[in-house]
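I hope you will forgive my troubling you with a question about protein structure. The record follows directly beneath this note:
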Amino acid sequence: MQLIKNDRLTLLALSVSCLVSLGAAPAVAQSMAEAEANQSYPRLVEQNVKSKLSFISEGDRRLGLGPNGETKSNEAGLDIKPEWVWQLSPHWRSKLRLQAFGATGQVDVSDEIGGTTTTDGFLALREAWLDYNGLSDYPGESIRFGRERLKENSGIWWDDDITLTRWIFNTSLLDATVGVAQKFAELRTDTNELQGYEQDIARMFVHTRWQWRKGHYLGFLATHGQGYGSQADEYAARGQTLDDSFTDSLTWTAIQADRSYFDWHSHDAFQYFASVAAVNGTDTVIGTDPSAPSGFSDRERDVSGWAADLGARAQLLDTPRWVVGAHGAVASGGGGPGESDAFRQTSLESNRSRFTGTRSQVQRFGEAIQPEWTNLKVFTLYTALSDRDTWDANLLYHRYWLSDENGTVRSDLVEPGFTGSSDDLGQSVDLVLGYYGDSASTSWAAFDVRFRGGVFMPGDAYGDDADARHRVVVDVSKRF
């Protein structure tokens, strides 16, 4: 009887609770609606200042082969980035991010900005955009316009500041974006004007990433660049040549598949990444022409190149996380009169991402050489150890070959200097360490510390007299 009585009391309590909940639900909803209506706009929802002190040491970019001496340097730099995010109304949001950078001498900051990267200081407008999310009831759908950091996970396609208008759709199963963009200027005080080959290019882009199975993703990416300027004619009339080409009409497409490859919080025992890409269209190059008044003229060239990047990673320990992985990447080279079979990148890339399975952003093709992904074959072997949030250590080995030994590879850090007698480009070793004390603590005494070091050892393509070069960067960061 006592048991029956207790059951009846429990049932009565549950019934009363349900009735109270049903009665309270409209009141709670009304309270939330009133709270939203009473919000004042605009309001500042986020404000911080990221400061970073860097020590940068670089070896000779000419590998001891330059006729004008060596280019070694040891410098220090200070980087400050304030940013603000405002909620302008229930559906409108905006962001502003600025940058002030100063160094003791000329240093490379290619991991921070696009365009011309060697500088001793500047002020810059990094981001300034508006976002409207009232298109539908989906919280992850919006349209954004202004200057933004356009980035995708691999960093091989997009990772640059650019003026754009784009539609964003972000759900748990599908991420998508489509838009138009153009670089109008660097918006920096040291070098505001774009380099010649980047001027007057209208871009259209689309990217989708679908989670077809838990942790497994399929993606499609496309970018079209349409040149409409007369830079090639102007260069030719002045008798100027250009190592790069001018975009006429180029389209990049890529199909990607991965298993949470860029998620450093993953506990998967096995992960993979695969990307197959192509570029097709036409560009314009400048060559000698005895019949032209300046001795040079521009000519259109057909472009048809391809590239692939395949990687796999195995987790040996879960806590701390210890992984080993390998990548094989190839980008076509070669060509003939009036055509190019070489793959080329979009010029918006950074080639820096979390592809080793840790929180650290690592240069995909080597810290000390940082080549563009064109006319290049790379084999990468790496291992990494981390606790996922606070610290990590990454050790990488890269081996390089030219796809076409008669071609070249472009790099912001190493001048070509090829002999044309071998496809052996060389090898490199990188060590990347990260400690994220400031991110995991609210203490004013906590800092983030990052070490990125690499050594590039040139191969037979540079001849027997080429010297190895190093690049070491130590960053100490604090957010206020």
User: Anything to note?
Assistant: The CA atoms of residues 158 and 349 lie 5 Å apart. The longest helix spans residues 2-37. The longest strand covers residues 296-317. Confidence is low (pLDDT under 50) at residues 1-35.
